[in-house]
Amino acid sequence: MDLISRTRAAVWHPCTQMQHLEGRAPLAVARGEGAWLIDTEGRRYLDAISSWWVNLFGHCNPRINAAISDQLTRIEHVMLAGATHAPVVELSERLGRLTGLGHAFYASDGASATEIALKMSAHYWRNAGRPEKNGFISLQNGYHGETVGALSVTDIPLFKATYAPLLRHTKQMPTPDARRAEPGESAEAYALRCAAALEAHLAGHAASTAAFILEPLVQGAAGMAMYHPAYLGRARELCDRYQVHLIADEIAVGFGRTGTMFACEQALTPSSCGIPADRAGVRPDFICLSKGLTGGYLPLSAVLTTDAIYEAFYGEETAQGFLHSHSYTGNPLACRAALAVLDIFEHDQVIAANRAKAIEFTQILEEVATHRRVRNFRHLGMIWAFEVSDAGPGFADRFHRAALAQGVFIRPIGNTVYAMPPYVVDAAAMRQLADALLACLGEAEV
Ligand SMILES: Cc1ncc(COP(=O)(O)O)c(C=O)c1O
Fold first, then answer.
1. pLDDT of residue 411
2. How far is the CA of 334 from the centre of ligand 1 (A)?
3. Has this prediction a pTM greater than 0.85?
4. Percentages helix, strand, coil for the chain, rounded to the nearest 5?
């Protein structure tokens, strides 16, 4: 049997109606090379969405490969309860310096990081003598993962509706998604209007609310919804005022995706709007990291928090401590991959280099941005997105297929087409992407 038949028979693919796979074969990938995927027939496809937003420095990156190979000769895994190892210690120290937070707690995927942040927040309030503060708020259209706790704060109906009876009740705040601004209203004014609604909610419910979780600057699964950084500044201010934790879910946007190492660094406090960006930035109470953390190599996530929160768990009683564990917590191979990623960021000055690349790539995509079918073309850091005005039912799948035929692996969300390439992508590949997008937009039946 060929690989496609075997995958149909043996693998339950994620986020997939398996019957749909009968007519449409998934891409059978044999290997990867930089920003490219190579299928079992030897055809090459640009990985324009970084394999679900995880890959930063290309497939089979020699530096990350070398770090993992070296670690394989030392220790592949050891449990982190009752043991420790150099890769997890070094990674925790470096993540602490980068985020301004500390006490890194590890898991294997993004959803688990969300679970950890939610549990830690509620447990903090319990330890602080305020157990009634155990509710959560999040943004409309937010996405934080699909395990039961994470899904409770996610607000994507397709993922949530079926499982609603299993979930905890949470409240969603108006999304500052700039596309929702009234005609003539600036993205900033709209963001601040949404922040006013957040304040109204907190004024009435802070006593029962543990934390507000959000995706800073870009709501990825909502369709790369981008919003003004003034919202983050105001959210920080309001969470402080009403004593509610701010959880920054940087799982998708962390590690340079929005143009800074972490998106929270771009927050503008309302009083600072309009002053130089180096005075900007907020520090959340918790930051959730995953995806790009290992450059897309191995499953790893981390939650870092403040000293004050950490200290509320520190004491004689076991039950006062944070009671949560995963078998692969702090896996040494994954930590070495993450350390190699941080080395590349430092050595290659990736954030600065990406700034120049992003300007060039935006120019390359100019013809796409102005195409008659394209609406809301937007860009932040290494993310580009737009809506297709006349997209009918089944558009995402048709566009995906048409792009594959052009040598590009891309998966629209509804009528939103987006590119989120690995940072190693070059101008020639971006030109191929632009040509492929134009060809797809030119096909009447897509
Ligand atoms: C913002 C955000 N949070 C959480 C998650 C969940 O991560 P995972 O798929 O690794 O569980 C994702 C995944 O796309 C995400 O984009």
1. 97
2. 17
3. yes
4. 45, 15, 40
